[in-house]
Structure formats: C-alpha cells, structure tokens
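Objective 1b: paired records.
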Amino acid sequence: MKQWVKKLLDQFDIPTDNRSSDPSRPAAEHKPLEISEERATILHIIDVYNKHLIELDSQPVRRVRETLDEFAKGLLSTDPEVADKNLFRFRQFFSSYRIDEYSYMQNTFDDFKNIIWDFADQLGEDIRVEEYHELEVKTHLDQLREAVESNSIAVLKNKSREFIDSYIEIQSKKEERKTRRLDAISKNLSTVKKQLMAANQSMRQDHLTGAFNRKSFDEMTKKLMSYSQIQSHPVSMIVLDIDFFKKVNDTYGHDMGDFILKECVRILKEVCHRETDFVARVGGEEFAILLPDFRVDHAVQRAEELMGKIRKEVFLQGEHKLQFTVSMGIAEFSGKESAEQWLKRADSALYQSKNSGRNKYTVADQALKSVA
C-alpha cells in the first residue's frame, strides 16, 4: 500500500489491517485492508470537500457531512456491488450539491451588486434633481436676458424681480436639499458599510465555530509572510487536530461533535487573545493559529498553555460528559519558504505528534527551513 493511501486511512482512524477490528482471529489470518488508488483518490476528494463545506439553506453542513461520511464508509466496503452503488449515489449527490453551491455563490455576489447598485441609483437620482433645478435657473436667466434686450423698463423690472425671487428660492431649496442629501448619503454610506462588512465577514468566517475560514487563513498567511520579510519580525504557526474526533461523532452524534468544535475554538481564542492572533478552522476538526511577532519558543509556550487548558476542561452537553485532547505541529516562518512549504512543515510536525501517540505537540524540523 502506498504511503499516501496509508496516511489517508490513518487520518480516518481506519486500521490498515484487520487486527484491531477482530483481535480474536489468528495472526495468520490478519490481512492488510486492500483499497485501490482510484477508490482512495475519491475518498481523498470526499475528505477535502468535507473540510470545506459551505452552510447552504438547502444543504446544511451537518447533513452533508453525514452523507459524505456514509459515502466514505461505502467506498471501503469489500463488496464490489456496494462500492459501485455508493459511487453512483456519490455522483448524483455531488452534481446536486455543486448546483446548490454555485447558486449560493451567485446569490452572494448578486447581494453585493444590489447593495452597490441601490446606493449608486440614489446618487443618480440626486444628480438628476439637481440638473432639473439648474435647468430651471438657466430658463429664468434666459428670460432675464430677453428682458434686457427688449429695451422695456417695465418688462425688465418684472423679469428682474421674478429672476431674483426665483433664484433666491431655488438656492434656498438647494441648500435644504444639500443638507438632506448629505444626511441621507451619510446614513446610506453607514448602511452600505455595515452590509458590506457583514457580507465580507460572512465570507471570511466559519459559520459553525466563528473562527476564520480556510480562505481567510491563506490570505492572512501571505500577509504575515510579507510583513515578516519586510520588517524582519518573526511569525509562527500552530496547526492542530482534535484527537479521535471521528469517534466522537460516531459515538455521540454530530450535535456533540459540533459542540466540541465550538468549545475548542472558544479555548483557542481565550488563550490566543492578542488582537493580532489569528485562529482559523482549516478543515473538519483541523485548526491553525498564526502568531505574529512570536518565535518558535513563544509559540511552544502558547501550545503548552492550550494543551493544558483543553486537558483539564470537562465538556457538558445534555446528558453527556466528555473530555478531549489535541495534537499539534509548530513551525516558525523561515523567511525563505513559500506558504505551502511553511504549512507543510507544520503539518508534518502535526502528523509526527499523531503518529507517536497524540495529545502532544511537535516542533517542525528546523533543517527544512532552508528549502527554497
């Protein structure tokens, strides 16, 4: 079995042999779990998609996650008929979900357009009103010129009086309109700003936990890398997984799983509480923390504080009482690597923690910092 396939199965807490699933069988009968690369690839796609779901009205994240978990289990079936049936169902589901996902993104974009369009439309209406009144002033001015050319004192006196009265009235109303317009524009700008901020925040946050999402994490990673290179300030990253999270879902249900995810983020934010600290949910039960101006030894102190706090807490949800642990990988930005290389070093340290017993942290190999 190729290493990437074994790593994928380990991530799903699926034994690569049948020893743990049936310890009573003789050792000679223990055979490795066989899975083709094609099926493992689809399993990987399901796993990646599961970690980047969007909360849709028609497809709630929890329900989609349960459906994808069923497909993943079906792919591991030794019965070819069951596996083929699951593949067919997965194709149908994926097509339907992609349509709903596209509709959601399109509607979100339309909301942005409508916010700006309404604001531009109101400004356009104000401009048209002003143009109308400017035309009115021009008309009165033309009439005054005609009175001057008529060589009639009576006509000139009447037209002058009419022009002055109308001009004063128009200018007075213009000032009133200007005051009202500025007040309205100020209020509309405030509303538009709030709407745009709310829409932007919605696109940047994970809907379940309130942590930043993967897209925001990728953007912030690049910003902090540039900051570090320009200012020569350190920046460190902690990536972490909730240990045996799949078993929590399988044993207690997704309600408890969601509760644990939210509680985990709460603790991460309590410990990493600086305004510049950045807590993101980058996968199903995977999180990442960016710590500007922190060298690796400072990041280690944060990791120890986090692990200690999580280990001590007892989480209550309904009738259930639960404790959990996390595994971590820590890496300081070298200044010479790409965002992918930096994250890969932290991820490698995380997997070292998981493969050596979990409930611990590992500092990334410093030698990898020299990778171009």
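Objective 1b, second protein:
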Amino acid sequence: MANSRAINLANWEERVPAHASSPDYALDRFRADPAHLSGVVRFDLPLLGDVNGLRGLHLQCHIGTDTISLARLGAQMTGLDFSPAAIEQARRLAADVGADVEFVQADAYDAVDVLGRERFDLVYTGIGAICWLPEIERWAEVVTQLLVPGGRLFIREGHPMLWSLEDVQNDGKLLVEHPYFEHAEPFIFTEGGTYVETDVHFSTHETHTWNHALGEILSALLKRGMRITGFVEHDSAPWPALPEMMERLESGEFRLADRPSRLPCTYTLQAIKEA
C-alpha cells in the first residue's frame, strides 16, 4: 500500500498543473462567472437537492472545482485531498473567486483523525475517487465517523462494471478484462496521458487502482448503520472512459455510441447515518 500511495501521489502531483490549465476544468469560467458550477455538480443537482447551510466535506477533492461549486450552492465546505499540489491549487482558486472553503491535505483514511468525528452534515465524493483506495470497508468506516447522526453521504462514481472493462476497441465488443470485485493487489496501469484535454507530456506513467463491487460498497455502509436512501445507475460518464467507443452528449457527458444501454458507466448512491 505504501508503495502504491507513493506511485499514485507522484502521478497526481505531476498532473495537477495540466488539469488546472485544461479547458475541461474551466478555472477561467470559475473566475469570470460567480454562478458557474462544475459539470459534475451540475449533473448531480437533480439528486443532490438543497445543500444550503449544510456543513459539507468533499473527500478526495483534487483541485477543488466541485468543492467550490457546492460552496456556491450554499454549503459550508471543506475539501480534503492527499496531493499537496492539488490542495495548493484548490486554495489558490478559492482565493481568486472569494470562496470561503477550507482545504486540507491528508489521506482519505486519515480524515477523522485530521478533521474530527461527527462534524459534517454531508460527505460528498465525486467521480474517480474510491478507485484509488484499496479497502472499501475502511472508507465506509471513515464516512460513517465523519457524519453527524442524520448526516448524508452523496457519491457519484465510476461503475465497477466500467472499471472491469478493457479500454481499447475490440470490434465494438465490451471486453471484461479486470476483476469486478475488490482485490488485494492493485490494477497497474502504465498509460502516459490523463483524462482531460492537454498537450502536456508526462514523465510519470504508472498508477495503482482498485475496483469495489456494488455489493461490497452497499454492504460496507449498511454494516455501519447507514440507511441507503437512493441508488441510480447512469449510462454516461463525464469523461470518455472508452474513447474509441463513446460519443459526447449535449450535456457534456459521454456514453457508448452503439447500444448505450449495454453499460452502466456511473452510479449515484445516497445514504443517511441513522440517528
């Protein structure tokens, strides 16, 4: 795990400047338009509901665009990420746009030790977060301890079915190549790019990720007294996860161009910590 963390941290540290300058994160829009929200949060709005006045924590917040978007909706937000470069960029963006958001550099598993127990009404986790964590049981324990009684978890994440697919075109077929269930050893990828539009060439290429089955995620939360209040699967994702097989929608999301009902790309899960 320690080696995987160091490898992943090196990857994220190098990519933060490219992400901050990419049109996909649209930092200039945040600075120019006080009402601008990230595409991820705009997608979430119908299910997210009113967050005004809630004390919110965004776990694994990266450069803070979703965190600041939630703050613009009225939540009192804290963002946490393990990458010093990401937190520095998030703080800079918050200062530029006048957002009253606290950004904290720490591992997700250490969030309770760093921030305190039962502090938040809302724990929010966005796309592409829990795949970087090896144990979903530990994650569920952290989420439960962070929430006040009656507090809510909101997570939209890449679907474990999507993560199990080979991401190269195979005559239009979907090839299940990677484990669906949680596994002790990580997936090791050595791709040189990133998921946003950029001309930057990177020197770090290796990443370590883990899949977590839907049943494992739900069971981990239920075991800790969380009550599932919503679960929706979506046929789209905010990035072209299977580049040669996906088309871009008017919403900015991507889905399979051929028979999109074949694949759940993402899901939204909501749960309440019982009082």
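The two ends are 34 Å apart (CA to CA). The first strand starts at residue 55 and ends at 59.
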